[in-house]
Known about the structure:
Elements: H1 23-33, H2 39-59, E1 64-65, E2 84-92, E3 109-120, H3 124-135, E4 139-140, E5 142-145, H4 148-154, H5 167-187, E6 192-197, H6 206-214, H7 219-235, E7 242-247, H8 262-271, E8 276-280, E9 300-306, H9 316-326, E10 335-339, H10 355-373
Amino acid sequence: MSVTRPADPPFRAEHIGSLIRPPALIAARADHDAGKIDAAALAAAEDAAIRDVVALQEAVGLSVVTDGEFRRNTYSDSFTTAALSGVEIQFTEDDGWKPSAGHGARTAMRIPKVVDRIEWKGSRNADDFRFLASVATQTPKITLPGPGYIHYRAGRVNISKDIYPDLDAFWSDLVGAYHRELDALAEAGCGYVQIDETSLVKLGDPRARALLAERGDDWRDLLNAYIEAVNAVVAGAPDGMRIGVHICRSQDPNWQADIGYDPIAERLFNDMAVNFFFLEYDTERAGTFDPLRFVPEGKTIVLGLVATKNPALETADALKRRIEEASRFIALDQLALSPQCGFATSADQPDAVTPDMQKAKLARVVEVSRDVWSG
């Protein structure tokens, strides 16, 4: 069967963004935190590591490259705290709501706290993109946390009622900050942005719904609010910018949803105003491909079939069988392939695979995509 290539991006062979940080970079950051080297020395170490990781991505044949998120401590901090005023991160172990700590788990975690009016204060991502673009020969991509991140993790209790007695004003200010961030990225030459939405898939999980009800939220209201927020962000994006949404669930079922996409699929695929989605499909926990029947023509699904937290290399035949299975619910031409998530979402996250296996998995994505969609 001959198929056409989807609008680029997304590419037939994709990846989600974060990559394993090399030991030299980890050591440099530790030295910087200990006051042994200055910011310029740390930046030089980051530059060197990014050059190497871009070369790796291009060597395996990827048409999209990132900087591995090597300048970040975690996936969200280059925007949530770096670009926004009025937002603080607190580490808490009290008995309050901890949605991303899991379904009833009461452990220390990062909680955004809105203490003042949210305003955009500049884009570190734009500077990061400029360097990435200067060392890349393929299409560079920047990732941003989704607009649902702060509200879901914080809950109303951590969004100041003195500053935001009306949550409509909170959403308006937050979306406005995203617009300014996207404008800054476009001015830097960025045409490809991936939004990482960690909240949406949780809304389908009965345990998460119970915790939401405990804090006074109905999951259906949040689904509406988060879709509207993404749509508002996308509506204000510069002309020509391609924006896709990664629906992240994490490897640990105690942190993210332990359910498939079924409860949110119809609304997600039809009402969210983006043209492509990155879906995690590496384990049975993600459910079946049946929800893909709701994807309308003209939208692309990037199948996250290659596990980033499992050290075993997927066989090409197994991946092809999974793609064929998915194509029973959606046209093959509307599909692409990627790892299920980033390889190292946080700088302090233990690496589940070796650097050599990471390279092999990325190469396998390229190999299979060429075999399946070569035309």
